[in-house]
TrEMBL record:
Name of the protein in its database record: Uncharacterized protein
One of the record's GO molecular function terms: metal ion binding
Domain Mycothiol-dependent maleylpyruvate isomerase metal-binding: start-end pairs: 15-153
The MDMPI C-terminal domain, residue ranges: 169-264
Coiled coil spans: none
Organism, scientific name: Streptomyces carminius
Length: 274
């Protein structure tokens, strides 16, 4: 247990997901580490390297001194370059090296979380190089590890944990970003509403309301006569929101009622993760 109850749900979600990651990769033979994942340019090894690297940064370990190759097509900006360093530095590691470092990192981070005494509001440097509160940093680690657990499950053909504690953290993180998608990025008209009806393992209905000045908010109340209603499965929702699938690939299985031009604009801007 941490000293602060507000941190415990995120610590629990992180623990559940990272232990699932460990269980998934522990029995893999060398060749399976090279399987492609839904993350552009990343293999199973790369996803696990990313998880290890981010947790090492949360532990305060120094960042590797490493020059990236010039031919990494998926590295397009400073943020992706920062993230890629922890990945590329481990591309030569063997399967035993990967699993042993993962297990050691889990032990260290679990101990850190059990002994965490800092106030949740304390500002800390996140692995992405920006300051945020300790609570938000831990929340984002729970979110990130769950999403990458799903990347690994898809690559390895082992679905599961779509309704785990990490999935609920992911739902809340993604819903917070929905008003910007609808109101600013997709340009929904003022004084309109867009309803999202999500079914499956994580089920919810949310309405994004755009006020007269074009600002968006999200709530769980029912909207009468929305400009657009979009219905989809939870797995489709989070894969779209996390940039794991292109809208065109799932457009036929998303049910839309109302403004179809707005629906296309929302889907075009649905991805909200780096």
């Amino acid at each position: 247990m941490t000293d602060h109850p507000s941190l415990q749900p995120y610590a629990d979600a992180w623990t559940h997901s990272i232990e699932a990651v460990s269980e998934l990769v522990m029995p893999l033979v060398e060749g399976e580490w090279n399987r492609a994942t839904p993350c552009p340019g990343w293999s199973v090894r790369d996803v696990v390297s990313h998880i290890i690297g981010m947790e090492c940064e949360m532990l305060g370990d120094p960042r590797p001194i490493h020059s990236l190759p010039r031919d990494l097509f998926h590295v397009k900006d400073e943020l992706s370059r920062r993230i890629e360093v922890q990945v590329d530095v481990r591309r030569c590691h063997t399967a035993p090296e990967m699993t042993s470092e993962l297990e050691y990192t889990i032990i260290r981070r679990s101990r850190q979380l059990r002994n965490e005494k800092r106030d949740p509001s304390k500002m800390v440097m996140s692995p992405l190089g920006v300051e945020m509160t300790l609570e938000n940093a831990l929340r984002m680690r729970a979110f990130d590890v769950w999403v990458h657990e799903q990347d690994l499950r898809r690559a390895l053909g082992k679905p599961g944990n779509l309704d785990s504690p990490g999935a609920l953290v992911a739902r809340d993180v993604l819903l917070e970003r929905l008003p910007k998608v609808v109101a600013k990025d997709a340009g929904a008209p003022p004084n309109s509403a867009v309803v999202f009806d999500v079914s499956g393992p994580v089920e919810f209905m949310r309405t994004v309301r755009v006020d007269g000045e074009g600002r968006g908010t999200v709530d769980a109340s029912v909207s009468l006569g929305p400009a657009l209603t979009m219905a989809m499965d939870w797995e489709v929702y989070f894969r779209l929101a996390c940039g794991r699938v292109r809208p065109a690939a799932v457009r036929d299985i998303i049910k839309t009622e109302g403004d179809q031009e707005l629906a296309d604009a929302v889907l075009a801007h649905f991805a909200v993760t780096p």
